[in-house]
Design brief:
The chain is an alpha/beta fold and about 850 residues long. About 50% of the residues lie in helices and about 15% in strands.
């Protein structure tokens, strides 16, 4: 049987089934206890189960097909039961356990006898569900038509067509007044009532029943006519309310809507909106390609880039040679005329002219080849960009199992927690995605174990019983930023200090350590604030491994915490590991590269601004003392190096300083020359001998030279360890730099906005919302300007503006609003309350700094 199945179809079915199971699982995990599943979500599950059933039958997985059929029947029972049956924890767990068994089955070979074990367990759990749910009822029209997207569209369509026909028929009957008017109206009322029952419109059904009852009780034809006119008005009103989606306002009887009826003396024209069906976007055709083939194509593409760069270099060399040949031929011809050889030896002169013509032809052909090479360069670049997009995968691929992990943790440890995921569609390179899976999973477990309290503890702290863990992802310039945060207990710094003392750290050093230094201890190997290692907290992956794995892909981890409020870990990783923009530097006759994103400034090294304090050298730059790193001191290799002449580089006796900003540390690198910027392919170096730890990976330049990448993390870490005393304070910086207060409820936005402003020369204070900002200002915080969001908890941006406006001193502080609210009315209100500027997110760094400088200078 197995040999008759096409392997490609089988693999495709398994991948699709995995996605269907994730869909079912996520809907089940979103159900609150004793809550009815929304009928739209049941329809999604039914389609998923139906697809599994049909696909399994197609590849002869009969057991799985049968199980999927039973699963479909159970959800049909939930669908037809409507409001009578709610899902409790027992039903939820049974369905989730069945999903787990389905996963076990699809991971086994089709003809494996091991399939019987999870299948038997499924049948047992289905029997338990049958005892709870009972037999399914027949689906009525309302449940059949209630799909997740078009249920309202169908109701609107029916009321525009079928109901409209009935009402037009009523109008004709009331005008003609036939002898069987009562029977005709009763029949139409029954038809309309049937539609009300079909679409579960209880008010409309009750209206029809009310009319029918009054019709039966009427004694005369005049009374029938009067009731008929009232019914027509009520039905017309109901039609308009349905078309405007005001179902809660539907009348229930002929006498409960009073003055809303149009009077005969002043007829009212009712505009009925035209039904427009939802536009269906065409689906994009896709094919499945093994990832290994894509990697192979990408490798060929990378080789093509290198060869194309070499071709460009060779063409440039040929142009110089052809130009040189043409010049030499011209000089030779001129010399022949001057020596009168042209007339004495015409053959030699003809040969010289021929050489000159050939040289000119070569230059012409080289120009044509250059144009072709330009097109080749452009096409190669487009190929690389397209391949990069194809090789990128959404973050959801590693996050899709996290809700189930948290659900299991809650059940196992008697805690309540909810997972919120924002930005799951952010795309990253596959190798970055795989490297992030383990750190993110550990951070989720860490947030649950160390952050989220028990319901009793949260209740005592005035929090809701259910904790919140949020994973958010966004692109910031050329990096991807992922934040894992919780609203739990936060990090107890005293507990961290005590744990460090118990591990043997010097007490005097701990007393002098800053809050950041104390928090950094969490990333040390073997460090944990847990006295006992549990199955949850001690799973072989510590915070040191999280940081090291993120560093391996050129990223960084930042910890931010407020005791009693929560903790956030922010991971910042590059968008790509294969393509990078680098700055080429020459140090001690060796060409090296550093990522351009880490470079904050470049200038000639002024020796008069270099000072020595203790055993360290510092460079005075913008009123700050930056640690100076002479890069050539790291290149102590036991091999000869030869200086390569570069005719394009001008001779200079001054060295160059490159200011590096990495891991929120600023340092200055001193090198001999800066050789420009390039976008390059990053290559790993493989071999028996490892690279020096000061270097990592390499790139290939246009001329084929291999250039190593500087391991900035390692060098900066070494330099930081050399510092045994506190870094000298800035030279009067506090007096000369303006202070800006950032007010935003997003830690992530505050952090990156602070980085932008600090880089531009501002001192930055932060507040998590308007109330926090107001309290800090009332406590005596002096600032030159405020950058404030609009939407914030406790006190929003408008509230803060109003508070500032009421204070005679603080109202002079210029406030720049930075928000996602782009409507004119939001801007108008902000300016009315005293804002000096209004900018939108995502912000343009240049515009923000210019506007901030303008409002602060003006004030």
């Amino acid at each position: 049987m197995f040999n008759q199945i096409d392997l490609e179809i089988q693999l495709q079915f398994i991948e699709e089934t995995k996605q269907h199971l994730i869909t079912i699982e996520n809907i089940l995990l979103g159900i609150r206890e004793n809550q009815k599943i929304d009928i739209q979500e049941i329809n999604i599950i039914l389609r998923a189960a139906h697809s599994i059933k049909g696909g399994a039958a197609m590849i002869n997985m009969d057991i799985l097909s049968d199980l999927a059929h039973i699963l479909e029947d159970n959800f049909k029972t939930l669908k037809t039961s409507k409001s009578q049956l709610k899902v409790d924890a027992n039903i939820q767990n049974l369905f989730l356990n069945i999903v787990d068994r389905f996963r076990q089955i699809i991971n086994l070979p089709i003809d494996s006898i091991d399939v019987e074990i999870p299948a038997t367990q499924c049948y047992e759990m289905f029997n338990e569900l049958h005892e709870i749910l009972g037999d399914s009822e027949l689906e009525d029209a309302s449940t059949i038509l209630a799909t997740e997207d078009n249920s309202q569209d169908i109701i609107v369509l029916i009321f525009q067509t079928q109901v409209e026909e009935c009402l037009q028929k009523v109008e004709v009957l009331l005008q003609e007044q036939p002898h069987n008017l009562r029977d005709e109206l009763s029949t139409i009322s029954s038809q309309l009532g049937g539609l009300g029952h079909m679409f579960d419109l209880a008010n409309f059904l009750q209206l029809c029943e009310s009319f029918t009852n009054q019709l039966k009780q009427s004694d005369s034809e005049d009374e029938v006519l009067k009731i008929g006119n009232l019914a027509l008005e009520s039905w017309r009103l109901s039609q308009v309310l349905v078309l405007k989606n005001k179902l809660d306002l539907l009348p229930t009887s002929l006498d409960n809507h009073g003055s809303i009826y149009p009077t005969p003396e002043s007829p009212k024209v009712i505009d009925i909106p035209i039904f427009t069906p939802a536009k269906v976007e065409p689906t994009e055709n896709t094919i499945r390609v093994p990832f290994t083939q894509l990697e192979e194509i990408n490798n060929y593409s990378s080789e093509l880039v290198v060869k194309r760069q070499q071709l460009s270099l060779k063409l440039e060399q040929l142009r110089h040679l052809a130009h040189y040949l043409n010049k030499q031929a011209s000089d030779l011809e001129r010399q022949q005329y001057e020596a009168k050889i042209a007339t004495q030896n015409p053959l030699l002169h003809a040969f010289t002219v021929k050489i000159q013509e050939i040289a000119t032809d070569i230059e012409t052909h080289l120009e044509d080849t250059g144009r072709i090479n330009y097109s080749l360069n452009k096409n190669t670049q487009q190929l690389q960009e397209s391949l990069s997009k194809v090789l990128m995968r959404p973050l959801s691929e590693i996050l899709e199992r996290f809700p189930r992990v948290l659900y299991n943790l809650c059940n196992e440890h008697n805690k309540k927690a909810e997972l919120k995921i924002v930005g799951a569609d952010i795309r990253l390179e596959r190798n970055i995605l795989e490297a992030l899976q383990e750190p993110l999973l550990h951070l989720l477990r860490n947030a649950f174990d160390h952050g989220i309290e028990t319901p009793e503890q949260r209740h005592a702290s005035g929090k809701s019983d259910t904790g919140i863990i949020e994973i958010s992802a966004t692109h910031q310039q050329n990096r991807t930023v992922i934040t894992v945060s919780d609203d739990g207990r936060g990090v107890n710094l005293d507990k961290v200090r005590q744990r460090a003392l118990n591990m043997g750290l010097d007490a005097s050093l701990l007393e002098q350590a800053s809050e950041k230094d104390i928090l950094d201890l969490i990333f040390e190997p073997g460090f944990s604030t847990r006295e006992e290692v549990s199955n949850l907290s001690g799973r072989g992956v510590g915070m040191d491994v999280v940081r090291s794995k993120v560093k391996e892909i050129g990223g960084e981890v930042i910890l931010d915490t407020v005791e009693g409020m929560g903790t956030s870990f922010t991971l910042s990783v590059p968008l790509s590991l294969s393509v990078l923009r680098v700055l080429l530097l020459e140090s001690d006759r060796m060409l090296v590269a550093v990522p351009s994103e880490a470079v904050a400034a470049i200038f000639l090294s002024p020796e008069e601004r270099i000072v020595t304090i203790g055993e360290r050298e510092y460079l005075s730059h913008q009123d700050e003392m930056l640690p100076l790193i002479r890069l050539n001191r790291y290149w102590q290799f036991n091999c000869p190096r030869y200086h390569q002449k570069n005719p394009k580089r001008k001779k200079s006796t001054s060295q160059v300083v490159v200011v590096i900003q990495q891991n929120h540390q600023v340092s200055a690198l001193q090198v001999e020359h800066c050789c420009g910027e390039q976008q390059v392919e990053i290559r790993a170096i493989e071999g028996n001998l490892p690279l020096p730890i000061e270097l990592s990976n390499c790139t290939i330049l246009d001329d084929g030279r291999l250039v190593p990448m500087v391991n900035l993390d390692e060098i900066l870490s070494r330099e930081h360890q050399k510092v045994t005393t506190k870094q000298p304070p800035s030279l009067g910086a506090r007096k000369s730099k303006p202070t800006v207060l950032l007010v935003d409820d997003s830690i992530n936005i505050r952090r990156y906005l602070a980085s932008t402003l600090e880089k531009a020369g501002y001192f930055v204070e932060q507040a998590e919302d308007g109330l926090d900002a107001w309290e800090k200002l009332q406590a005596g915080l002096i600032v030159n300007g405020i950058v404030c969001d609009v939407d914030m908890p406790r006190l929003d941006g408008y509230g803060l503006l109003a508070y500032l406006k009421s204070d005679s001193q603080l109202k002079r502080i210029p406030v720049t609003m930075l928000t996602s609210q782009t409507s004119d009315r939001y801007q108008k209100l902000a300016f009315q309350l005293g804002a000096k500027a209004y900018l939108f997110k995502p912000y343009n760094e240049y515009d923000l700094l210019n506007k901030l400088s303008e409002v602060i200078s003006f004030s």
